[in-house]
Design brief:
Helix content is about 15%, strand content about 25%. The chain is built from 6 helices and 11 strands. It starts with about 30 loop residues before the first strand and ends with a helix.
Length: about 260
């Protein structure tokens, strides 16, 4: 794996991933993330027809958040995509990496595509220095790839404080429509790239400007049918709520703006 000068690749080379440059002594590694590398016969073209993001225009300056959906447009996996020369690195949940690799492999048919785990780690910091701005929301901070190091503290609390959800524990698997997961507002979908799995329903919802439910962060309460994840130590929970019944849910500015322009029932 070669960096080719990409700003998000800190000290990464073909055979070694040295520790982060000493911009800060605090831990930065997101220990619940893993990396998959998609390479071989046109990996961009392979992913382009499968996932929600435009991989053809992915460059070394900016990663992108995207998802792999069911034909009905429900989220199976979400991840960040990073350009690695002719290959693509997928920054995904460590607990879902094997399942994601297997799912993508189903679409290879006889195509000479490899989908393999690679060494390295995903890093995060609120402080500028290394990496690039998180493509979902600038307030999330800075993200980069590098060698494993001390784990970061505070990422989950910070992410939830901004109302941003991710992963199968919060999105579910085949449970949440991609736009219900706020993918439009958090830059998780291209509406100009053409067809991909789940595109028809996703595009229809977008053009009608009508998303009836939203995945939201709320104060901890008794879990119910709409609850996806609970975080007792943070006194937070993630739920899928109807937009007319958001109640005490956190409504950050990016979500408030979307709700204000939504077409009423």
């Amino acid at each position: 794996m070669q960096s080719h000068g990409a700003s998000y690749l800190v000290g990464m080379t073909e055979t070694t991933l040295p520790a982060r440059s000493p911009a800060t002594s605090r831990g930065t590694m997101l220990s619940d993330r893993a990396l998959l590398r998609v390479a071989g016969d046109d990996p961009r073209g392979f992913l382009q027809g499968l996932i929600t993001q435009d991989v053809a225009t992915l460059d070394a300056a900016t990663p992108r958040w995207g998802g792999l959906l069911t034909p009905q447009g429900k989220a199976l996996f979400d991840f960040l995509l990073w350009a690695d020369d002719d290959a693509i690195l997928i920054d995904c949940e460590a607990s879902a990496a094997e399942a994601l690799a297997k799912r993508l492999s189903l679409y290879r048919l006889r195509r000479a595509i490899t989908i393999e785990p690679v060494a390295g780690a995903v890093h995060w910091s609120l402080e500028p220095g290394d990496g690039v701005t998180d493509p979902r929301l600038a307030d999330l901070g800075y993200r980069w790839l590098g060698a494993a190091s001390a784990p970061a503290a505070g990422w989950l609390e910070h992410r939830l404080s901004l109302g941003v959800t991710e992963g199968q524990g919060e999105l579910g698997s085949d449970q949440t429509l991609w736009l219900e997961a706020n993918a439009r507002e958090l830059n998780g979908v291209s509406f100009t790239k053409g067809c991909y799995t789940g595109q028809e329903n996703t595009a229809r919802m977008h053009h009608r400007a009508k998303v009836n439910r939203r995945l939201v962060v709320a104060p901890l309460a008794e879990p119910g049918d709409r609850t996806r994840s609970v975080y007792p130590t943070l006194e937070r929970m993630v739920e899928l709520r109807r937009v007319e019944a958001l109640g005490d849910a956190l409504v950050p500015p990016w979500l408030a703006a979307a709700l204000a322009t939504a077409e009423p029932d």
